[in-house]
Amino acid sequence: AKAEFNFRSRALDGVTVANVTTTDGKLALITVAADGGLSMRFDAAGATMPNSGGLPFSRLGEPNAVGGKVAFIGFHKDTTNLDDFRGVYVLDGDTLQTIADPSTELPRIGTFEGSSSQVAFDGTSVAFWGTHGSIQAGDLKAGIFVSEVGGPITAIVVNGDTIPGTAKTIRNFQSPPAIQGDSVYLVAFDE
Fold it and tell me: Which residues lie closer than 8 Å to 138 by C-beta, 6 or more apart?
């Protein structure tokens, strides 16, 4: 089958992980070795999204691989082709761990309802842009969040916070944030 590749992944340990959709509907995360060899990491075709009531993965966001683990955002599309369920996940060997999904309370903003398709990952912690509410309804709450795999989620900053050293208020963020060690780096906007 012909494959279409998305190679916007960031791999800190020299291994690239890409999400692949083939013309016959295959949806997977693959490892691309330095010699160009490919191997399967996660066959998402038909896999059930955790906490979704049995929904399958329809789309995978941009994966980020470090130390043999892969962090990514997974999506389910409804019959109108809109994302109706998404989650932030870490794949460690054969174990898929949920970091955030619609059953997750994001500190200071409410339940996880949205995100970009990108995450930051350092092999231990995942940082991501998460939202609750909507722009259309005028109640969008957004923030940059971080969680050690298997640990609680911490809000780094949310819209409405004051930009340090100014009187300006943060309105939104650029995704993805970056993470290294104990530091999370982000771009915030005041307009």
Answer: none
